[in-house]
Every structure is written in structure tokens, then in C-alpha cells.
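This follows on from our talk about sequence and fold. Please put the record directly below this note.
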Amino acid sequence: MAPGASLGILGGSGFYRLLDDVEERTVDTPFGPPSGPVGLGRLHGDNVAFLPRHGAGHEHPPHRINYRANLWALHVLGVRRVLGPCAAGSLQPHVHPGDFVVCDQLVDRTWGRRGTFFDGPVANHVAFAEPYCPELRADLVAAAHRSELPALDGGTVVVVQGPRFSTRAESTWYRDQGWEVVNMTQSPEAVLARELGMCYATVALITDYDAGIDALDGAGAVTQETVFSFFEENLGRLRTLLLAALERIGSQEDAGCDCAAAPNGMVPFPPGAAGA
């Protein structure tokens, strides 16, 4: 086992195991403990790191996840490309439960989360017009097509605070803005990866119609039991997509994107941090 990994996965709800023969690594960070030990394994000849963002027992609700510690732990282990699969609700009638959405835009409706590594005294304002790495997005879309899985190339995810689900009025508003999916964890995860110069992309597995369109479909209001059950039933499909994407990503020498240049050479290393 190599000391680290260049590829990483931040697992979503119910997706706590990806690799076989995993070595767990406990990582201390200057931002406190991550959601759990980082699993290190090999896939197609590449070292891959896996960290369940909610913890192995789903003990960390979305508004209490230590996002900074999670991204820092992957970063100090050498990870430079991160996939952040997640569960999401559909805001549009044409996006169905069971579909995958490879998001290209993000709207942040969260509050109070520690969403930056740059808390001072040095300020650094990273570019975030395109929140997801175009190279990783292309890999995910290609992997879905090769695996014959239904995937939408592009879509906006609105990130809500949670842990409650949206009201019908909120969901209708999001739908009327033209946004495709709703989720609770994509922010600040995506921007923290950008601040560290890491490539980051997500694929959202649609588990339900959100409250604003459930009446159009005749479905009842979304519940935690419904979401968890649907996600669990579709883990095999998500695993197939991710494994195909990781094989494609691992074969690339260098990313052809500008993600690594985003921090402008100012990757934050607090006093006492690994790598400082």
C-alpha cells in the first residue's frame, strides 16, 4: 500500500463501502476530526481513498459535517481528484427517481457552515464561476453512457441547510428558478476542494420528487425512510458508474483543467498542519 492516494471519493448517504481490502487511516487535521477514518485501497492499479461524509453510521447530519477536516484529510493523503456522489431530490418533472445528474452548477442556500480555509489574516477569493471540474464531469458522463445508465449532462443543484426537507413553497420556488435537483451536502464541500486546488465533481442519484412536484406525480411527501430505502436499492448502479469513472480517471496522466490553479499558489497551511 502506497502512503496515500491521488483519487478520492466522499461517499454519500448509505454509500459506506466502495473498495475491497481496505486499510483504514486515521488523519488528524487542524480543523478537528474528519467524519471517520479514511479507507485506502487499490482499484485498476491506482490508490483510491474513500471517506463517508456522514460517518460510517450516518451519525453526522449535513449541517454538522466537518467539511474542512474531510477535504483536508484527503488533501494531506495526496488526493488531487475527488468524486462526491450524493443523494438528491428532483425539482423537475423530466428528472426522474433513478436518474443520475452530473451537475455543472450550484446554488448555496446554507448558512452557518465553516465554508472556507481562508479565515484570515490572509484573504484569498477563489474563482467559483464553474464549481465543478469539467474533466471529471466528462469522465462521469462518459462512464454513465458506457454503463448504459440514465444520466443528465449538466444541471443545477440547490444546496439547502437541512436536516429537514424543503417546504412545498420552497421547493416550488426552486423549481420555478429552473434548478434541477436539491441536496444538503454539496456546499461547502465543492468550494473547499477548489480552495485546495483539488478537482471535484459530483453525480447525484435522484431518490425522489421533491415537495414542489410530488403532487404532479401523485407521490406523497418525501420522507427519510423513502430516500434511504431508494438509495440502498440503487447502490449497485451507483457503484457501477463510479468504478467505470475511476477507471477512466486513473488512466489520465494530468488533468486538463484549471482547478489546481484556483488557489493562486496560496494553499492554506495553518500552523502545525501536515504539509506546512
The longest strand covers residues 46-52. The domain at 7-261 is CATH 3.40.50.1580 (Rossmann fold). DSSP finds seven helices and 13 strands in the chain. The chain has one domain: 7-261.
